[in-house]
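Predict the assembly for these two chains.
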Amino acid sequence: MRRLLAVLLENEAGALSRVIGLFAQRNYNIESLTVAPTEDPTLSRLTLLTEGDDEKIEQVTKHLNRLIEVVKVNDLTDGAHIERELMLIKIRAEGNVHREEIFRTCEIFRGDVVDVTQESYTVQLTGPTKKLFAFMRAIGETSILEVVRTGVSGIGRGDKILEL
Amino acid sequence: MTEMLSGGEILIRALQDEGVERIFGYPGGAALHIYDAIFKQQRVEHILVRHEQAATHMADGYARATGNPGVVLVTSGPGATNAITGIATAYMDSIPMIVISAQVPHEVIGTDAFQETDMIGISRPIVKHSFIVRTASEIPWLVKQAFYISTTGRPGPIVIDIPKDTTDPNELFEYSYPDSVSLRSYKPALKGHSGQIRKAAVTMLKAKRPVIYAGGGVVQGGADEELVKVARLTGFPITNTLMGLGSFPGDDPQFLGMLGMHGTFESNNAMHHSDLIIAVGARFDDRVTNNPAKFCPGATIIHIDIDPASISKVIPADIPIVGPAKPVLAELHVALETEMAKHPIDQLSLDEWWRRIALWRQEHGLDHDQHDRKSESGQLLPQQVIQAVYRATEGNAFVTSDVGQHQMFAAQYYKFRKGRQWINSGGLGTMGFGLPAAMGVQFAVPDATVVCITGEGSFMMNMQELSTCMQYALPIKIVNLNNEALGMVKQWQDMQYGGRYSHSTYSDALPDFEQLIRSFGHHSFTASSIDELDSVVDEAFSPKLKDKLVFINAYVDPDEHVYPMFVKGGSLEDMVLSKGLA
């Protein structure tokens, strides 16, 4: 099962490597990982996408908590939550018809064209991972020149917050 | 008045303020500022080893014997990497240890400088935590945190990596040592959940076929007394893991012996047929459970452990209790007394259970007097050696071991009375552990009899420390079960590889141990028969040689196997009991 974990981590040198090391060492899988400091500069927040059944995720969570620098772990997939990912995608766009079509598709998906050349558009798109994939399908494999994704960031819905 | 000290001095001063009496180490370029600071003081004694691996095992033995963290000081590069095996050993057995590794100066980190290695990176998977020093002024705070983290919760080794520039004798800083530590991200449990403990007590009183399964957490948590009280109150049968031996008196009839791969017949059977297992400070290691899918099919599991990650990792717990063994067992004792006032123990069932156990014990229990047993070859038997040592030391010695057959024979036949008396590398299974660990123990308890039970294979992995023993006059008694082979490897090759001894024998390439030992100024004896053994053991443990290191080279039957041995992939009741019998 797909799981999205939110982790609060001391914003210290080496802390992230312990988290990554743990996943390698215990044979857990990281699908994607985003990390940056929070409003409190002493804390980093990670969103970690992984796979596993309840037992495995319980172990992952316990072992994450065992790391001295991990302050809090929360399985976002346990409750209602919002997931977003940002993608920058360079698309081949040659000839008026083709360029027009890509521009329209981009509008439908609420993407922004952030760079233009005679032969290509670079588009910025945010949304759940599913939406990014849908956009790529709509553009078509042959037109995609380069894709860069940030990985998923997640936050719980409603008043519930992940705090110390 | 503020004191101005250099980084090297700050480090040693912080160790003093932490109450450290002794550190085990080996100097080198990046550590020399620190060594100069050691030279200028008397309060912390430095023990010069011959190899950094041995330093870590000494610190480990010291920690296991006392409960206080062992402290190691090594230089950068090879000094640090040599320490790795010892750090991993301590990590696997949850032993408090502080390893201070010198590092090349900040300005050359990352340039592949001479004797540079990324110690923080290399040690990451085998430490509880690690620190790299950025500036000398943070050393007291890091040392304080290191000791706090190492010794609380589930104990473990901590690495402090110190770049040489932060110990520069020409840069002075104000020194003060913090009184206490509080970390927002590290809050170890100090007691168990009372509701869960009461639930455990109620469940225990309903049990018909209970077994208490106690491990290293009881020893490291200093909870032997509390364990004994719970066992006495209930009258339940009790077994120990390899790491838990000594936490319940080994010569007590309520004790079933060790469980697991080489556990006793009665203990493994009792586990398999039980309806309630009370696991305390044990982690359901694969050497205990055999096949987890076939493990104790009818049993409810109460699992008490300080580390939540150990609970339900291998075997799902029905009643998990997170907390240190000592306060949890104390509270469990009170809860049992309260509940017993309401519903007494099911004594009829318990008596019936003990009758079944007595039968198992009678059928295939260990023979604790094999003095007159004759081996097929007529050679001395390893069990006879352990039993002779047990008699000579009256069961009171600190016993360390290495890894292999001798370790299992010692675990089976030396009946330990108290926790901390039995010191071995259970989790990592580190050959070469025994001698340096015994040295650490002897430093910690100078007047105690310390025995290292070893085999010639393990012994040769760290025998350079005989020189350290000479330097510090350590009166260790080394008992070498010499079968001129890697006995446990050979046993597996006998049992699983058609007797093809691939690289497990070297009988024509062994040293003359008597000469070897004597060249370091120690005493050495050889025994090849039971009569020789009796007299040699008497002499080795006589008051005359109390202050001397004595090495007993006992030539034992190379064909003897360790039994029982559980059948791979089976349940706990599936055991091989002797050669050719499954």
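The radius of gyration of chain A is 19 Å. DSSP finds four helices and nine strands in chain A.
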